[in-house]
Design brief:
It contains 18 helices and 15 strands. By secondary structure, the chain is an alpha+beta fold. The protein has four domains: 132 residues, no CATH class; 79 residues, Uridine Diphospho-n-acetylenolpyruvylglucosamine Reductase, domain 2 (2-Layer Sandwich); 166 residues, 2-Layer Sandwich (Uridine Diphospho-n-acetylenolpyruvylglucosamine Reductase, domain 3); 105 residues, Alpha-Beta Plaits (2-Layer Sandwich). A seven-stranded antiparallel beta sheet has the order 5-6-11-7-8-9-10. Strand 5 and strand 6 form a beta hairpin. Helix 3 runs antiparallel to helix 7.
Length: 505
Amino acid sequence: MSNQQSHRIREIPYNYTSFSDREIVIRFLGEAMWQLITELRGSRRTGRSARMLFEVLGDMWVVVRNPYLQDDLQADQGRRSALIGALKHRLDQFEGRANGNLKALQLLRAARASVEAFAACFETNNQLRQKVRRALAPITRDDNVDFGGLARVSHSTDATDWRVEMPFVVISPDSEEEVAPIVKACIDCGLSLIPRGGGTGYTGSAVPLDTRCAVINTEKLEQLGAVEYVRLPGVAQQVPTVRAGAGVVTRRVSDLAAAHGLVFAVDPTSQDASTIGGNIAMNAGGKKAVLWGTTLDNLASWRMVTADGCWLEVERLNHNLGKIHDQVEVSFRITRYRADGVERSGAPELLTMPGTSFRKAGLGKDVTDKFLSGLPGVQKEGCDGLITSARFVLHRMPEHVRTVCMEFFGTDLARSVPAIVEIKAHIEQCAGVQLAGLEHLDERYVKAVKYATKAPRSERPKMVLIADLVADDQDLVARTASRVVQLANARGAEGFIAVSPEARR
């Protein structure tokens, strides 16, 4: 049997996960032991010894992957002792059938060491839990610190559904002020940290990769201020802004802005569940990014806790109130504070770079550029600190809006796709009309969301374009919307224009 074929074999019982036998063996016994198992596979006679070994690994694996079993065994020492005794008994039987085979005995030693480590982890975990509770007791309420199975399972993945490890603990601070001391306490306890908001990300940034980690859930940081007209550093006129905590759901900010006749430009498709902190950490966009840019373009300032448990505040200077790459030179003032959030740590730092450095020519937002000229927090996916709050610039939407929905049918996407460029180019040539949003839905997305076809057809479209056109001249925006539909018709699409707010939703 080839080595590649042996990787696909699943002999370990109770393994209903995506992990292969190879990955489980390497996790418990090490890669050298997997090579040994592969060598011994050809010399099996009845396979009974191998089944005993795999049963031991399977029993440990089902506990490792099930926090509810862990909680049960943690609380019931008798049941835990019975399990460990059964594992050791199987290994004794394995030894009795080894017949002096040196390779089998080498495998046995590794298995015994793994069982001992498995048995010891319960007491080790219990001691670490007590240590974490003691460290956090003066900082946050006891019920904000959750070691339970439900919390750990709920925080083991995000929208990717990618699962590697489960967090050791989930912490949900009540206020922004609690975050820095929580971070410091977790570091002192030897835990790595994962900030988490709504868990709607598709990059795996909220997925634990180590069992010794704490997920800090920011959903309780939901303070949302009133719309305030403030004079930003370097900006002559007063600007409408809003300050929001990291746990505020995106839709709430949009609704607040709309109630004041303004627009919050950050509107990812997950806005009913995503949170402000996640939007900043991912530099989220949305339909309105066409007009006002992504999250970064609309930030006036933000606060975050660094990996050493201290505070950092970032303010944008000379804000152009538009797309950041249109500004020749962009400046940020970075002020560091000690753990109390009041006393400054050194002089403020000035970070200056060309506006074009935030975009990739011909592409727009470059998701591979995590450094972003050294700007903290934004597009870092929570890797350089934990964002706690931010102040955003709000915008005035032109008086008249038309939403154009274009449905493309047929299999010739080479004919359909150029419509995106043609429509955008046409609108750019129309003085007085702006493209406030342009959203593209591909065939997989259309199918996934069970898109309701607007055209009188029984099939779903292969591609959907949704464009928001805005202008202060009602006749002009209406004519432009009609022309956009004509351009789509020329590419084999059917178009629909929505005028009222209800129809545009």
